[in-house]
Write a structure and sequence with these properties.
Layout: E1 4-7, H1 15-25, E2 32-37, H2 40-52, E3 56-61, E4 66-71
Parallel strand pairs: 1-2
Antiparallel strand pairs: 2-4, 3-4
Helix pairs in contact: 1-2
Length: 73
């Protein structure tokens, strides 16, 4: 299954969290979504949300952004 990508580098909370939630709801079981985030508050809010909703989470930091990969269980 191909990894879906969501670029939220132009968005800040609460819009980035809303877009991430909306996109994650359309994931099939075991499907991956990679989210590009630059805002630290948005990243923190997304991680909390996805942990509470039992997604597997992987986080990578790059120079200018963070890549949050979630997998729907």
């Amino acid at each position: 299954m191909e990894t879906r990508r969501l670029d939220l580098s132009q968005h800040r909370c609460p819009m980035s969290l809303l877009l991430a939630k909306r996109t994650s709801k359309s994931l099939a079981k075991n499907e991956m979504l990679q989210i590009k985030v630059v805002d630290k508050a948005s990243l923190s809010d997304m991680m909390s949300y996805f942990e509470q909703h039992l997604f597997d989470i992987q986080l990578e930091h790059a120079d200018t952004c963070s890549l949050l990969t979630i997998i729907k269980k």
